[in-house]
Amino acid sequence: xxxxxxxxxxxxxxxxxxxxxxxxxxxxxxKAAGLWEEIKDxxxxxxxxxxxxxxxxxxxxxxxxxxxQFILGDEATSALDPISSKHIEDLFLRLKEKxxxxxxxHTLRQALRIADHVVFMYLGEVIExxxxxxxxxxxxxxxxxxxxxxxxx
Length: 153
Description:
50% of the residues lie in helices and 15% in strands. By secondary structure, it is of the alpha+beta class. The strands form two sheets. Strands 1-2 form a two-stranded parallel ribbon. A two-stranded antiparallel sheet has the order 3-4. Strand 3 and strand 4 (125-131) form a beta hairpin. The chain is elongated and about 55 Å long. The chain starts with a helix and ends with a helix.
């Protein structure tokens, strides 16, 4: 599938067929995902022609194209280089003004940088949850304290 078709896919499923409308949506969401300037001349190229970091941002643009209430980022930066990870984190920081964002991460530093609210889980069980500042600076439970101090990871 081409880059353009990848972003437009969900819109087509929702019944949007007019080329002009799809073109506007694709451009808007590629800009929102910080990708437009890098690929605007290659919209008909296959997605495989993009770097892994660009593909990750393309996935975000595809999701945004259908106007969701929430964005789920499940290990959204795993296997990315630090520069691509920073792009994704910066996007989440900007997008959280408009969307609810649920981010699953095993990277404590990432959660420290971008979370407003944290749910700490261990072996599938919720141990503690609350505002990020409270949880990171004043954890209530010993298991949370141990995790934050690096006793286990």
